[in-house]
Amino acid sequence: MENIDRFGRRITYLRLSVTDRCNFRCIYCMPASGVEWRPHADILRYEEIVRIVRAATAIGIRKIRLTGGEPLVREGIVDLVQEISRIPGIDELVMTTNGALLPLYADRLAAAGLDRVNISLDTLRPERFQWITRIGRLEDTLAGLYAAREAGLSPIKLNAVVMRGINDDEVVDLARKTREGFGVRFIEPMPVGKPDTNLKGRFVSGEEIRARIERELGPLIPVRDEGPARVYRISGAPGEIGFITALSAPFCDRCNRMRVTADGKLRPCLLSPVEIDLKGALRAGAGDEEILALLKEGMRRKPYAHGLAHEFPHDRTMSEIGG
Ligand code: SAM
Ligand code: SF4
Fold first, then answer.
1. How far is CA 205 from CA 42, 211, 225, 323, in A?
2. What 8-state DSSP symbol labels residue 89?
3. Least confidently predicted of 106-120, 236-250, 287-301
4. Which of 141, 200, 303, 323 has a C-alpha 20 to 30 A away from that of 26?
5. For residue 285, how far is its CA from the centre of ligand 2 (angstroms)?
6. Mean pLDDT of all residues in 253-278
7. Are the CB atoms for 228 and 251 separated by under 8 Å?
8. CB 40 within 8 A of CB 96
9. Candidate from 138, 187, 197, 202 with most ligand 1 atoms within 8 A of CB, to mutate
10. From CA 148, how far away is CA 72, in angstroms rounded?
11. From residue 296, how far is each of 3, 11, 96, 283 by CA, in Å?
């Protein structure tokens, strides 16, 4: 099979960072000063993204996630969604967003063919939200959440990065959101890029979060393993709880994805600095066969990075790579 890599993993999922820009400056993702945005000319154009996605279907990619940066700050994003949703072979088109612009876009995204959204939500307290995101307002993201639900972009997953002494006292409140039908993903903070908030000492393991939730809400019922997440449910709650434990329990054996950075580099693994220049090839006039060959090369060079979990990359921020 084309999409089985040398470790027997089936690669079916491509995460595309459509912009490195963002309307927030989350403490775990960016320095307070922001990062220097790349010039527009360095960012993949929509027609280039579409060509990459078409080629990716030929190596067995079936799921696309648009991420960033904040995908909704890029002009014309609805048109991109529409174009990708029409590509034969793409079964699932989803987006990760901070949600603040969803009240404006949710209906149009759904109409254009977006299947669902993951929304970052680390806290349910307005002041804390503003402190963590440095710019954002909780009410905007919550309005986005409900707009997405109204538009049918469901099931919606809420992504919460849990940090000791910052928001770890809210894991039970966040877990309760599953009673409203939202999924919740608890993410261990990863020391990626150069956020100027020192995440050292802030780490909380998925195991600890789970124990805290179980103490208050009873035993979590295992549902399945899904890509990097182990998925559970609270008894009686329709939404699911997942734990993404990149540090405490790496999941390389289940990794099914590659990434494309905002500036058009194929990155087979978040943890490894290996990058393959798709944009350079596209702009040098590469044909579809050449792009396909580069995607296959990415799959061939996709490492098994268990041993690297203590060496998170500092060459780029999450917003550039596409978290
Ligand atoms: N702006 C969008 C958002 O925040 O949802 C999409 C891009 S953001 C980089 C994607 C995801 O990466 C978010 O859920 C965010 O919480 C997560 N993320 C960013 N930096 C992280 C870090 N250092 N450790 C763990 N997760 C991180
Ligand atoms: Fe922006 Fe998302 Fe990074 Fe927060 S996590 S700064 S919303 S890209």
1. 37, 10, 17, 19
2. T
3. 236-250
4. 303
5. 33
6. 92
7. yes
8. no
9. 187
10. 13
11. 8, 11, 25, 19
Which ligand places an atom closest to the C-alpha of 135? 2
Cβ atoms < 10 Å from Cβ of 134: 15
DSSP assignment of 45-72 equals PHHHHHHHHHHHHHTT--EEEEESS-GG
Residue range 126-150, pLDDT digits in tens: 999 999 999 999 999 999 999 999 9
Please indicate whether residue 29, judged by its CB atom, sits closer than 6 Å to ligand 2: yes
The mean pLDDT value for 140-161 works out to 98
> What pLDDT sits at residue 306?
59
Ordered alpha helix ranges (H), 135-276: 138-151, 171-176, 206-217
How far is Cα 318 from Cα 297, in angstroms, rounded to an integer? Answer: 23
Instruction: List all residues 6 or more positions away from 264 whose beta carbon is below 8 Å from its beta carbon.
Output: 43, 44, 48, 277, 278, 279, 280, 282
- The DSSP 8-state label assigned to residue 317 in this structure reads -
**150-176 exposure pattern, b = at least 16 Cβ within 10 A, e = fewer:** ebebbebbbbbbbbeebbbebbeebbb
Largest CA distance in the chain: 59
- Pairwise CA distance, residues 142 & 158, whole Å: 11
Map tokens 């029409």 to a residue: 86
What residue type is assigned to position 90 of the chain?
A: I
| pTM (global) more than 0.85 | yes
Residue partners of 224: CB distance under 8 A and separation at least 6: 231
Q: Compute the distance between CA of residue 227 and CA of residue 176 in angstroms, rounded to an integer.
A: 23
Phi, psi angles (nearest 5°) of residue 215? -60, -35
**Ligand 2 centroid to residue 17 C-alpha, Å:** 12
Residue nearest to atom 2 of ligand 1 (CA): 97
Helix, strand counts (H, E) of the chain: 10, 12
Kindly list the structural domains of the chain, giving each domain's residue range(s) and its CATH number in brackets, ordered by start.
13-321 (3.20.20.70)
- Report how far residue 292's alpha carbon sits from residue 281's, in angstroms, rounded to the nearest whole number: 11
